[in-house]
């Protein structure tokens, strides 16, 4: 039997998708080859790739004036690729600091120009997201970058910033596809695949067409969004297996009823875990209620001396990967799309039992 996997990433994938991939592994739809063994330029793979793109467009209702790119290098490479494409030499970009991932994006962008940290959650120990009234945006920013969901800290915006004509750039790695999204509010969205999209090794970029063709001359060809867009993300050999698996996930999401339906399930999943944590005297989560992540729920035990026993008991019950990120400790339950409501119920039942015995 498969365990319940609360890993922050690479994360749980839907069992139905894995079974389908397994069934197609040796012989993809009767052609006698696996997807990994076919040319990326073959009719078969081009069909797989364009269906995946279309399904993602359908799920997110992506407007026609946006390109969808399937790239490599993970979300971390985007930390450099964004300024190389969107920040002119000598230009300024605004960044919002809400935790470890936004800080990584800030540090990398500083290599390419002036970064104005327009707001930071540092003053409140990263327990609360600064409201837009508290931001100091620069008048001449090339773009505004933010991290809608901080995977490690467990903070998530329940609102989309309004940056007027200045393009809004979002690292959606750990929240994309968790619920419906108004893509038209963004200049560029990027997401590492290994949470709600598929296996690692793939990053999806959704970019408004007017932002293409702005790369600085020193930008490597491979990192120029326009080159990727003009070549259908096949300027070089793309990560074909990851692209195919992402396509299976998009089909699965459609079968579940799309993002409205996923959003309802995800709302319930996080609500019940936070409610349980808030009512308990053993577990706690420090994040301001309005800024709590739906996907990544960190919590600590009142006595850290119990951590080891908690994790051992969880593993014995097939509740895996609950330890917090190595930089913060404690616990973290990631509740991505492939983590079922039954998994959350099993986790809560175990937490209650552990509290009864140790609280
Ligand atoms: N941004 C966020 C919000 C993340 O959660 C992660 C990874 O977990 C990254 C960026 C880095 O992604 P990658 O490992 O694909 O570079």
Automatic annotation (TrEMBL):
Cofactor(s) it depends on: pyridoxal 5'-phosphate
The UniProt record lists the keyword Zinc-finger: no
Chain residues that bind L-glutamate: 41
SUPFAM superfamilies: PLP-dependent transferases
Quaternary structure annotation from Swiss-Prot or TrEMBL: Homodimer.
Coarse class of the protein's main subcellular location: cytoplasm
Pathway where it operates: Cofactor biosynthesis; pyridoxine 5'-phosphate biosynthesis; pyridoxine 5'-phosphate from D-erythrose 4-phosphate: step 3/5; Amino-acid biosynthesis; L-serine biosynthesis; L-serine from 3-phospho-D-glycerate: step 2/3
One Pfam family this sequence matches: Aminotran_5
Name of encoding gene: serC
PANTHER family (UniProt xref): PHOSPHOSERINE AMINOTRANSFERASE
The record's free-text note on cofactor binding: Binds 1 pyridoxal phosphate per subunit.
Subcellular location: Cytoplasm
Residues noted as binding pyridoxal 5'-phosphate in the record, renumbered to the chain: 75-76, 101, 151, 171, 194, 236-237
Family annotation (CDD domains): PSAT_like
EC number: 2.6.1.52
Annotated function: Catalyzes the reversible conversion of 3-phosphohydroxypyruvate to phosphoserine and of 3-hydroxy-2-oxo-4-phosphonooxybutanoate to phosphohydroxythreonine.
Full protein name: Phosphoserine aminotransferase
Family statement: Belongs to the class-V pyridoxal-phosphate-dependent aminotransferase family. SerC subfamily.
GO molecular function, one term: O-phospho-L-serine:2-oxoglutarate aminotransferase activity
Keywords, in A-Z order: Amino-acid biosynthesis, Aminotransferase, Cytoplasm, Pyridoxal phosphate, Pyridoxine biosynthesis, Serine biosynthesis, Transferase
């Amino acid at each position: 039997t498969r365990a319940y996997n609360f890993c922050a990433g690479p994360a749980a994938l839907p069992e139905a998708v894995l079974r389908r991939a397994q069934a197609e592994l040796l012989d993809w739809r009767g052609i006698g080859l696996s997807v990994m063994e076919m040319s990326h330029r073959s009719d078969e793979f081009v069909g797989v790739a364009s269906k995946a793109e279309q399904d993602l467009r359908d799920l997110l209702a992506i407007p026609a004036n946006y390109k969808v790119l399937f790239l490599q290098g993970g979300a971390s490479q985007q930390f450099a690729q964004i300024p190389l494409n969107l920040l002119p030499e000598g230009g300024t970009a605004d960044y919002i600091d809400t935790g470890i991932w936004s800080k990584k994006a800030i540090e990398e962008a500083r290599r390419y120009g002036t970064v104005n940290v327009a707001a930071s959650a540092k003053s409140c120990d990263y327990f609360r997201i600064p409201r837009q009234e508290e931001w100091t945006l620069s008048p001449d920013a090339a773009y505004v970058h933010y991290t809608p969901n901080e995977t490690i800290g467990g903070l998530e915006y329940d609102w989309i910033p309004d940056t007027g004509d200045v393009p809004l750039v979002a690292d959606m790695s750990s929240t994309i596809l968790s619920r419906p999204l108004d893509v038209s509010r963004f200049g560029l969205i990027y997401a590492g695949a290994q949470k709600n999209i598929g296996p690692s090794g793939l990053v999806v970029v959704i970019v408004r067409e007017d932002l293409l063709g702005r790369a600085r001359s020193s930008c490597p060809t491979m990192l120029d969004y326009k080159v990727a867009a003009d070549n259908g993300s096949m300027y070089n050999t793309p990560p074909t297996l990851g692209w195919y698996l992402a396509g299976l996930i998009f089909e699965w999401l459609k079968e579940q009823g799309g993002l409205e339906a996923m959003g309802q399930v995800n709302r319930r999943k996080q609500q019940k875990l936070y409610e349980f944590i808030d009512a308990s005297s053993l577990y706690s989560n420090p994040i301001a209620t309005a800024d709590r992540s739906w996907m990544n729920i960190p919590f600590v035990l009142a006595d850290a001396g119990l951590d080891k026993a908690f994790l051992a008991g969880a593993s014995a019950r097939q509740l895996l990967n609950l330890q917090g990120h190595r930089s913060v400790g404690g616990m973290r339950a990631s509740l991505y799309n492939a983590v079922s409501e039954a998994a959350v119920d099993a986790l809560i039942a175990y937490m209650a039992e552990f509290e009864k015995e140790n609280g």
